[in-house]
Write a structure and sequence with these properties.
This protein has 108 residues and is mostly beta strands. It has one domain: OB fold (Dihydrolipoamide Acetyltransferase, E2P) (Beta Barrel). It is 0% helix and 53% strand. The chain contains no helices and seven strands. It has a five-stranded mixed beta barrel. Strand 6 and strand 7 form a beta hairpin. The model has no long low-confidence stretch (mean pLDDT 92).
Amino acid sequence: MRLPIDTSAIKFAAAGPSEPVLDFATKAQRTDENGVGIFQVPVFAAGSGVKDSITIKVAGEVKGLSEFTQVKITRLFAQTWEVGDNHGVSFRAERIEILKATARCWPR
């Protein structure tokens, strides 16, 4: 089952750099239907009283990530999976992009 997640009330920060997703059997990098490499990005998520860390898969490398880099997640989905007796939830996004820091002007 594939469920969309509303991210409007959640802030995300990278927990480290993106890494290629490898096929378990062949150890080759997995690709999407267009042949673009799939990467996984560990993130911290917080908002609406929830704090957690998850890994999100996305097509294409997200460059420039380091710990606590704020990111924007576009079209996040949760998908259940089952292999034999094992099962869980994985996360996939259409896009992950670095948020630009904005300067604040304080009143004098």
